[in-house]
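Limitations
The structure tokens in this dataset are predictions for the assembled complex, not deposited experimental models. Users should treat interface geometry with appropriate caution, especially where small molecules or nucleic acid strands are included. An illustrative entry is reproduced here so readers can see what is and is not provided.
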Amino acid sequence: MINFKYIAELVELAESSKKTIAEVVWGWESEESQCSSDVVWNKMHAGLKVMQDAVRQGLQEQEKSFSGLVGGDACRFTNADTFLGPVVAKAAAYALGVSEVNARMGKIVACPTAGSCGIVPGAILAVGEHLKCDDKVLVKALFTAAGIGAVISSNATVAGAVGGCQAECGSAAAMAAAAVTEMLGGTPKQSAHALALALKNLLGLVCDPVAGLVEVPCVKRNAFAAVHALLAAQMALAGIESVIPADEVIEAMYRIGLDLPRTLKETSEGGLAKTPTGERITEGING
Amino acid sequence: MGVFDIIGPVMIGPSSSHTAGAARLGKMAGTILGEVPVKAVITLYGSFAQTYKGHGTDKALVAGLMGFAADDERIKDALSLAEKSGLEVVFKSSQGDYHPNTAEFELSGVSGKKARVRGASLGGGSIRITSIDGYEVEFAGEYYTLITIHQDKPGVIANITQILAQQNVNIAFMRVSRKQKGAQALMILETDQPIALRAINAMNELSGIQSALVVQPI
Ligand code: SF4
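Predicted assembly:
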């Protein structure tokens, strides 16, 4: 029986069986769901294809969302000269693109939520191109990300309404950081450090979307969080460690989430939503 | 909790509660009506009422009524598709002491059949149906769900469960509600296995049964 409740246990399981986190999580899902490992693999592969399509669509289409607040930035970003390295620039563009697809009612994979759906695909697809790897590596990366997300979700929360944006975009960045670390040959321990570093540095991030829509600040935030995940992975691969272990960071995130006032947890009653511009936009859309 | 609760669902954006959950609510309401709807009056409560335009909640609810799944790319165009297919839709907002993401459907079908369904979107795309035709109910549409309207008298439920037993169908959850003793009652039965059409036909033949209907997991 494969069983883990904490990141430490997941790392231990992987190391003692000389497997990657992805392989452990894949086996775990197959046991839990009582589906063959092929069925589980194919379902994840189907999710990957939706992500790849969303990136493609996101980079091509410039149509605005219903509110008119977002749309077209992924194109703008891709067409501009950039001083960033190609992996970082692609991660940001892809994350923007997927989030814009989400905002204009296109098809995406919640990852872990719809609001944060650009972060994991942005990071892993950009790194995948850098490695020139096939879909197999990317599907595995999704299993790694899913395992991390499952631990966060069962010990804390991935819902903005419960924990603020640190729970959504913070968790997504943590998932992406661990996945990218493993893609680049990092050990399970390094993946754990990467996720701890990523989450730690988004602690306290509030959820204050303008007019209650998953648009401002969400779409651009996906790009920031995708790049943030790459930095966390790069640090972990360089041997930099998080002083606070991953499980304790997750617990801290949860406590901080509970401590946040409700005005900053998806109610649009505080923060950016209550700025003069935010209020003006709200009136225009819902008024 | 499984990996596909984290990497998933595959859905139409922008919001799992206001779009994906709304599509599933609509689909469930349509299935409960049991035929092609021609008119729908949809009342929105709480956050649904406040932010439905920006989240496309209206489109998703109507898409669901037409049988579209939560990942169907036609959701975006659902309102014009409804108009073309002859489904008349009216939206209203109201206040009530319900879950903040609640919608109530008053549906009429092609044959004149009517249904009133209320449900809430709970987040992450999951839903709960809370009322059917004025009966308080509670189910999520994650199992095969049998809905019967029958006379509130001894033996009727036993006859229904016996048919299920004969078909080797295991009951996971069961709930009966009635408005008044001895009058009509509504039963929700969630099962682990699919319920064959012939079992439903047999139930509809039973004395004391007004209607039996199965809703597939959505
Ligand atoms: S700000 Fe709120 S709605 Fe937007 S991505 Fe973050 S948690 Fe989701």
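Some entries come with short summary sentences. For this one: Chain A has a mean pLDDT of 96.
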